[in-house]
């Protein structure tokens, strides 16, 4: 129910009435003659307009604040407070007559003071001793507590459902690049990819187009992607599904994947940097194989030793370059003389770059 118009009308009536009596006071008469009407009626209309304009501050805002406060007050406190206030008013009414018989200035003032004091005391006492009050009336509060327990159980059950929804596996959409890369098959076999792997038909069509390319390199890459899909399909521990959903509002394969992931609530598995950024900007969860590979690389600290085979010369004079099993480049100072040899080196510095981790080392025997 919208109380704004009602409070505006009430404020206009009250202030209009105030304006009316103010006009009477100015005219010094209650007779509506031609002369007095020019004072009383403008004052009444001005008061009504003022009340209508000021209603949001003098009536609507306090009413909304009181309503919002009452929403947070327990029903038992509200009921006991109302009963206590009424009892306080009854006591004040009984005392008002004898108090009004007192000589001035006590007679006119003390009845009002009694209303305020006993109304406050009645409300406060009954709210603080509500359990004893309801017990005295034979009303058990156990039912209320049982209702609170039931409500709490419902809240706990809902929390459990929300947690299950949060950790529930989602569909993982594979893009063309990650299928051709092939590492997704190894990761899926380990069981780290929870949920089903979903391959849209437009990705499969692009993969087939690459496999039919006249360029030898592209043809081999496409065929390797088809072999990876066959490997995933044959794995009993991997759920691989194909979908014919094809968003018509997008033209490019990457755009179709993003739209499909947003509509299904799935995540995109890729190693394409541009697709990764575009999907994240649109609020789509992305699993990047390259980021995963960088995260699981061996952590080496300066001063540690490791064997490395120097396979080529470095860019700087005297440098040799080798690679760890995970593909991390190791630059060995004064290692050029050990090309095609496996030596023991000591790590001097580890750098994390956009391209991955880079390790600097020196031969142990230097």
Protein model, in words:
The chain has three domains: 4-132, no CATH class; 172-294, Rossmann fold (3-Layer(aba) Sandwich), CATH 3.40.50; 298-363, Beta Barrel (OB fold (Dihydrolipoamide Acetyltransferase, E2P)), CATH 2.40.50.140. It is 59% helix and 15% strand. The protein has 13 helices and eleven strands. The chain has helices at 4-27, 34-72, 75-100, 106-128, 130-136, 142-167, 176-181, 183-190, 201-211, 216-234, 253-264, 273-281, 289-295; strands at residues 172-174, 197-200, 240-243, 267-270, 286-288, 305-310, 312-313, 320-323, 329-332, 341-353, 356-363. Strands 6-10-11-9-8-7 form a six-stranded mixed β-sheet, with no helix packed on it. Strands 3-2-1-4-5 form a five-stranded parallel β-sheet, sandwiched between helices. The longest helix has 39 residues, at 34-72. It starts with a helix and ends with a strand.
Q: How can the largest sheet be summarized?
A: 6 strands, mixed
Could you name the ranges where pLDDT drops below 50 across 5 or more consecutive residues? 142-147, 163-168
What overall form do the CA principal axes indicate? Answer: elongated
What percent of residues are in strands?
15-25%
Number of helices: 13
Helix content: 55-70%
Tally of structural domains: 3
Taking all Cα atoms into account, the compactness measure Rg is: 41 Å
Could you tell me the mean pLDDT? 82
The helix/strand class is: alpha/beta
Strand order of the biggest β-sheet: 6-10-11-9-8-7
Compute the separation of the termini in Å.
86 Å
Number of strands: 11
């Amino acid at each position: 129910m919208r109380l704004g118009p009602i409070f505006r009308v009430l404020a206009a009536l009250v202030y209009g009435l105030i304006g009316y009596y103010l006009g009477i006071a100015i005219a010094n008469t209650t007779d509506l003659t031609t002369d007095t009407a020019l004072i009383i009626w403008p004052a009444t209309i001005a008061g009504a307009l003022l009340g209508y304009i000021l209603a949001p501050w003098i009536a609507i805002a306090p009413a909304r604040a009181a309503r919002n406060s009452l929403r947070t007050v327990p029903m038992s406190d509200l009921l006991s407070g109302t009963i206590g206030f009424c009892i306080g008013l009854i006591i004040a009414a009984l005392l008002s007559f004898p108090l009004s018989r007192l000589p001035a200035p006590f007679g006119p003032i003390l009845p009002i003071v009694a209303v305020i004091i006993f109304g406050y005391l009645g409300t406060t006492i009954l709210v603080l001793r509500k359990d004893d009050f309801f017990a005295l009336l034979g009303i058990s509060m156990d039912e209320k507590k049982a209702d609170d327990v039931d409500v709490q159980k419902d809240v706990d059950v809902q929390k459990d459902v929300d947690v299950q929804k949060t950790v529930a596996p989602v569909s993982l959409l594979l893009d063309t690049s990650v299928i051709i890369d092939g590492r997704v098959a190894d990761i899926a076999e380990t069981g780290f990819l929870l949920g089903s792997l979903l391959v849209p038909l437009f990705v499969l069509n692009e993969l087939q187009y690459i496999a039919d390319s006249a360029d030898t390199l592209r043809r081999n890459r496409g065929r390797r992607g088809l072999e990876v899909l066959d490997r995933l399909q044959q794995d009993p521990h991997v759920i691989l599904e194909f979908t014919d959903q094809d968003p018509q509002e997008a033209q490019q394969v990457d755009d179709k994947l993003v739209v499909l992931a947003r509509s299904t609530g799935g995540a995109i598995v890729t190693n394409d940097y541009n697709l990764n950024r575009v999907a994240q900007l649109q609020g789509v969860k992305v699993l990047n194989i390259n980021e995963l590979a960088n995260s699981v690389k061996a952590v080496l600290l300066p001063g540690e030793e490791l064997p490395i085979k120097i396979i080529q010369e470095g860019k700087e004079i005297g440098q040799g370059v080798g690679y760890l099993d995970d593909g991390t480049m190791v630059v060995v100072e004064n290692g050029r003389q050990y090309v095609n040899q496996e030596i023991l080196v000591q790590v001097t510095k580890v750098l994390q770059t956009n391209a991955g981790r880079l390790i600097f080392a020196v031969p142990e025997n230097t």
